[in-house]
Amino acid sequence: MIWVKAILLVLAPMFFALGVVLPLVRFEKLYFFVDNPSLVEIVAALWRDGNGGLALLVGLLSIAFPAVKLVGLAAEAFTVSGAGARGGLMHALVPFLSKWSMMDVLLVAIVIFAAKTSGLAEAFTQPGLWFYAASSVLAGLLHHLLRQGAVQ
Q1: How far apart, in whole angstroms, are the C-alpha atoms of residue 59 and residue 63?
Q2: CA-to-CA distance for 63 and 104, rounded, in angstroms?
Q3: Could you please report the per-residue DSSP string of 97-117?
Q4: Which of 7, 62, 101, 115 is the most buried (most CB within 10 A)?
């Protein structure tokens, strides 16, 4: 079981990094204009276009919260079982952050659906979305395995 945790501990952050920098969605408008934004590019474009509040919100929920959650999972994985393992800030913070894990994947799915049904653009998923979703699933699985090991 320790090997599964170790593999998840390596893959979840790696997939998260790929999910943040690789294109999330491909928009094709009028067959001539193509846009392949990554999550980082979306946040930067929001900031550049004067939507600082929305850029901050998306950056926090999409990049900062998952990164802190992955750090918390790593801290939990390396904490020695015993009296100190059930306390601490990260132990309390990880379940809260886990509740927001798949929100971005759902948001991108809604955007793709809206683009396809509006007729103004065609939208296709890109590798970044799949890596981001895989990171969320792997982090959730790792969280479950770490909590299960702490109870036993």
Answers
A1: 5
A2: 10
A3: HHTTTTHHHHHHHHHHHHHHH
A4: 62
CA torsion angle 109 70 67 71 (round to 10): 170
Q: Give the pair of three-digit tokens for residue 10.
A: 């390596």
The one-letter code for the residue type at 72 is: G
Q: What is the pTM of this model?
A: 0.82
CA 39 to chain centre: 10
Q: Going by DSSP bridges, is the β-strand pair 122-125/25-29 parallel, antiparallel, or unpaired?
A: antiparallel
* pLDDT tens by residue, 32-63: 778 888 989 988 988 999 989 988 888 888 89
As given in the structure block, the two tokens for residue 12 are 């979840």
Residue 10 burial (CB count, 10 A)? 11
